[in-house]
């Protein structure tokens, strides 16, 4: 198997309000293979979201390298990273981040890398159908339930045919039964389109279904107990 993502010697610090810097991540090595489905678990505040943001190129590390599909992210300009993210990564945010003024189908189309052709509309319709929202294409987020908004966010993340789907506790806001069906939906869509997944979850029943469970404590030396 080929590695889709390689994280090497990554350190990320943040300025602390009281002065000084806090080392949040110190990751010697972390890998995801092509098409692999990985669940990331770990204590609150441990740096899971920060790691997702680094992989998505929304943040840059203090040092180290992140290579996705052969491209080293830290070598790209900010604009280059934005373009790279749009073509390679789908991101399901914890709070969905749908644009309120746009309908469901418009939000899905906004997840596409290019243009506004007929083909894109067909794919957006198809994705909305796949997440069970064919009859809600013209509804705005405020006219949808939380679970429906979440499914629009999933369709949007898949819209650009990414190589890697990142999802930050995408089931935190729905009941356990819906959580399971939403997760199954994401996993089967990713399998169908050969998209690798890295998903943050606190739910060990959900994590257990993945190819691999990665505990942040095991890969992040910043969380190691001090002697
Ligand atoms: N922009 C920032 N400036 C300063 N500190 C930050 C910033 N972003 C995150 N942190 C700190 O980094 C640490 C890790 O935060 P992060 O959101 O990555 O954790 P998490 O594992 O995703 O937590 P949770 O499971 O609660 O969502 C926290 O201690 C947080 O206070």
Outline the structure in words.
The protein contains 8 helices and 9 strands. A hairpin with a 5-residue loop joins β1 and β2. The protein has 227 residues and is of the alpha/beta class. It has a domain of 155 residues: Rossmann fold. α3 packs across α4, α3 packs parallel to α5 and α4 packs across α5. The model has no long low-confidence stretch (mean pLDDT 90). Strands 6-7-8-3-9 form a 5-stranded parallel beta sheet, with helices on both faces. A 4-stranded antiparallel beta sheet has the order 2-1-4-5, with helices on one face. The site of adenosine-5'-triphosphate (ATP) has 10 residues, from α1. It holds the Pfam family ABC_tran. It comes from Rubripirellula lacrimiformis.
Name the overall outline.
globular
Q: Give the helix level as a range of percent.
A: 25-40%
For the residues shown, what is the average pLDDT?
90
Gap between N and C termini: 38 Å
Integer-rounded radius of gyration: 18 Å
Number of helices: 8
**Largest sheet entry:** 5 strands, parallel
Return the CATH architecture of the domain at 3-96 and 163-223: 3-Layer(aba) Sandwich
Q: Helix/strand-derived class?
A: alpha/beta
- Based on DSSP secondary structure assignment, what is the total number of beta strands? 9
Low-confidence stretches: none
How much beta, percentage-wise? 25-35%
CATH topology of the domain at 3-96 and 163-223: Rossmann fold
The secondary-structure element order is EEEHEEHEHHHEHEHEH
Largest sheet, order of strands side by side? 6-7-8-3-9
CATH superfamily of the domain at 3-96 and 163-223: P-loop containing nucleotide triphosphate hydrolases
- CATH class term of the domain at 3-96 and 163-223: Alpha Beta
Bound molecules: adenosine-5'-triphosphate
């Amino acid at each position: 198997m080929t590695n889709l993502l390689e994280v090497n010697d990554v350190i990320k610090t943040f300025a602390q309000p009281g002065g000084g810097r806090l080392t949040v991540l110190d990751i010697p090595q972390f890998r995801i293979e092509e098409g692999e489905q990985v669940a990331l678990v770990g204590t609150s505040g441990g740096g899971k979201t920060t790691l997702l943001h680094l992989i998505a190129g929304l943040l840059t590390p203090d040092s180290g390298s992140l290579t996705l599909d052969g491209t080293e992210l830290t070598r790209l300009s900010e604009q280059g990273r934005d373009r790279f993210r749009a073509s390679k990564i789908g991101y399901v945010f914890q709070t969905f981040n749908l644009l309120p003024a746009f309908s469901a189908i418009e939000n899905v189309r906004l997840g596409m890398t290019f243009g506004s052709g007929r083909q894109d509309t067909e794919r957006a319709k198809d994705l909305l159908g796949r997440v069970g929202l064919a009859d809600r294409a013209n509804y705005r987020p405020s006219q949808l339930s939380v679970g429906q908004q979440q499914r629009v966010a999933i369709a949007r993340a898949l819209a650009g045919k990414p190589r890697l789907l990142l999802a930050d506790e995408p089931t935190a806001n729905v009941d356990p039964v819906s959580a399971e069906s939403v997760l199954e939906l994401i996993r089967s869509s990713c399998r169908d389109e050969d998209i690798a997944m890295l998903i943050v979850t606190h739910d060990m029943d959900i994590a257990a279904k993945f190819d691999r469970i990665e505990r942040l404590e095991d890969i992040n030396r910043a969380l190691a107990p001090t002697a």
